[in-house]
Amino acid sequence: MAAVLIDGKALAAQIKQSVRADAGTLPRKPGLAVVLVGDNPASRVYVTSKRKDCEECGFYSEEYALPAETTRKQLLDLIAELNGREDIDGILVQLPLPKGLDEREVLLAIDPAKDVDCFHPYNVGQLTIGTPVFQPCTPGGVMEMLKEYGIDPAGKRCVVLGRSNIVGKPMALLLLHANGTVVLCHSKTPDMRELAASADILVSAVGRAGLVTADMIKEGAVVIDVAMNRNGAGKLCGDVCFEEAAAKASYITPVPGGVGPMTRAMLMKNTLTAAMLHQGVK
After folding, report:
1. How many CB atoms lie under 10 A from the CB of residue 212?
2. Which run of H or E residues covers position 33?
3. Chain center to CA of 218
4. Which of 149, 132, 118 is nearest to 11 (CA)?
5. Tens digit of pLDDT per residue, the chain (282 long)?
6. CA 128 to CA 155: how far, in whole Å?
7. Distance separating alpha carbons of residues 61 and 90, to the nearest angstrom
8. Catalytically active residues, by annotation
9. Coil, helix or strand for 2?
10. Distance (Å, whole) CA 230 – CA 108
11. How far is Cα 97 from Cα 113, in angstroms, rounded to an integer?
12. Could you tell me if 96 and 36 are in contact, meaning their C-beta atoms sit under 8 angstroms apart?
């Protein structure tokens, strides 16, 4: 079996095109503020790409590049200012933060109506009960990919590897809301390999190159690789041993070009949703 490649890059482009069209009908442009504290090189790349996405979608954007020595008060004061701005619909504080700054405190300070990353406990709670205002970007992107390729989780065994608050937990919730039978595995799961091998839909979000091998994949399974790692040769890769997995799977995401572009597209979609809410547009 040769797996169908799920093209996240192409789908993300479609979503951003649709977002741009909808944004053009609003009384004013959607506005996104991105806050970067410190000089983490990976974070800088992400922030630059988000600025480009905003331009592509016809959004207004602001970037705040703060030094690593930024104090708690300075950062919280900036967030409070952005919370009060009518032209800013979404606020994104790039993680991780430098040592000495409490990530939870900072995320709690963001107005839930501007929490386009869907990290605030209010939005997480809404997601948990099945009435989300925003889709968590990476898991939401995965669900869009499944929908685009006609893959319905209903009645299927869905195994998620990794229990992070950003990907693993919300991914499990979205699959559950789509009527999948969900198993969430983590570092203390003793039979993770066997559980993975039973999955109709396998989502790996651990962050360990080479973790998912062919013996962990059921014949005909859908394999979604969320992770972004570097292998021994320094090449970008996911958790999944791609070639051997593709020989058994029915559908598979590549790394790069799979989930990554969808995460960025969903951020734009969430910012549009926030702008529509703030401008009273349904």
Report:
1. 25
2. strand 31-37
3. 25
4. 149
5. 689 999 999 999 999 999 999 999 999 999 999 999 998 887 888 888 999 999 999 999 999 999 999 999 999 999 999 999 999 999 999 999 999 999 999 999 999 999 999 999 999 999 999 999 999 999 999 999 999 999 999 999 999 999 999 999 999 999 999 999 999 999 999 999 999 999 999 999 999 999 999 999 999 999 999 999 998 888 999 999 999 999 999 999 999 999 999 999 999 999 999 999 999 997
6. 20
7. 9
8. 50, 94, 117
9. coil
10. 32
11. 22
12. no
Question: What DSSP line would sit under 210-256, residue for residue?
Answer: T-B-GGGS-TT-EEEE---EE-TTS-EE-SB-HHHHHTT-SEE--SS
The residues near 172 (Cβ < 8 Å, ≥ 6 apart) are 158, 160, 182, 184
Instruction: Give me the amino acid identity at 170.
Output: P
Nearest 5°: CA angle at 273, between 83 and 136? Answer: 85
Domains of the chain, earliest start first: 28-113 (3.40.50.10860), 136-260 (3.40.50.720)
Q: Which two tokens stand for residue 151?
A: 């893959």
- To the question of pTM greater than 0.85 for the whole model, the response is yes
Residue type, 272: L
> What does 110-167 look like in DSSP terms, one character per residue?
S-GGG-TT--SHHHHHHHHTT--SS--HHHHHHHHHHHHTT---TTSEEEEE---TTT
